[in-house]
Amino acid sequence: MALIESSILIVDDNDQICESLELFLGRYFSDTTSLSNPNNLIHTLENKYFDVILLDMNFSSGRYSGNEGLFWLKEILKRDKNSVIILITAYGKVELAVNGIKEGAFDFVLKPWENEKLISTIKAGIEIRKSRLEIAELKDQQQILNSTSDKEFFFLKGTSPEMKEIEQIISKVARTDANILVHGENGTGKEIIAREIHRQSKRNGQVFMSVDLSSLTDSLFESELFGYKKGAFTDAKEDRAGKIEVSHKGSLFLDEIGNLPINLQSKLLTVIQTKTITRLGSTQSKKIDFRLICATNKPLNQKIQEGLFREDLLYRINTVQIEIPPLRNRKQDIIPLCEYFLVQQTKKYNKPQMKLSKSALTKLQDYMWPGNVRELKHVIERAVILNSNSQLKPEDFVFSELTENKITDDILNLIELEKLAIKKAVKKAGGNMTKASEILGISRTTLYFKLSKYGF
Fold first, then answer.
1. Residues 128 and 274 in one domain
2. CA distance 166 to 190
3. CATH code, 300
4. How many CB atoms lie within 10 A of CB 420?
5. Half-sphere exposure of 103 toward its Cβ, with a 13 Å CA cutoff?
6. What is the CATH number of the domain that holds 433?
7. Is residue 146 in some structural domain?
8. Helices (H) and strands (E) in the chain — how many of each?
């Protein structure tokens, strides 16, 4: 007979009973542990996971009230409200059984026990434990997903050869669990690509968990990603699953991975390699099944050369790399995107349907779109809000500061564009090179190199 994969803890002050139960239950369950001193109970629970706990009601000689068992029952549930506890005693009374179940026990068994009844009670307890954990996991997922439910993500198929090639890559990689790295400038739609991969994958019925790594400080990194146990730190009022744990069976999207500090990259690498996490304040590791998709606008190979990114981490995250070209390099997609966003924004603001004039379309196509698709959406949204006419004209569209400098077809030389971008970033940062490098999306070392190269 195959053993049932489960872990059972026996807590009884009688060594003979512990030994007898271990031998008997060992025929049915894969792991049994016994404990004769309840003072070691909490330490044991902090270091090992158990599906069912068999708990004696009385531990001191001459005491038969069951208060000791009720005390330890409360202590266990205080730390894990999903614990399944079966109370067991030689001095059972109906009142004692009722009190125990009222306090949160799953069931009550008398000594001497009936073997068949004991086994069936434990089996039922294992199923209840599984159900409780599944419900807790769903609640954790819902709590985190509620915070991002207002985001709008839609994958609009492009007409350009570049986007058609990306669509083909997505259809191939989505069927696998290969790790994907999406690279592209800010605003190109890296998260939309990641969500489309998830939508076409076998995990599409499960959670898509998006994490912006650039927003996590060193102190928040572990608690947000790995979760924590109650009491792990001052504000840890209750157990909480981390975002990696919530992504179990689904897809985990790590945005801005190029911004992750080097001292935190080793922790992330360990999780990716082992697919296990340990909550803060706990010593128990948990296996997590997730599909990994990462995104960055940084040149990671260059960051490796600068000692700012781990080479072994890059190898882990980019089994397949998808490069999203900037909008200025795929002009064919501008009109379809404009038309889509126009319909979307008129519905959002309860405006009558609007159209774009030919001259407006020309202006939109000629613009360089340094902010890519994100900027295009914002430009259309602003025009819809401020206009009450049925047709939008060129003057209805206001571009960023770059427009004032005539960044159109007049300047197509990439070196000149780069020089201008560096000048504007340094000016905007007030001469602060760290801020300027962040605006440009490059490292400070690279910025100094380019300043020297262009003779600034």
1. no
2. 12
3. 3.40.50.300
4. 14
5. 23
6. 1.10.10.60
7. no
8. 19, 16
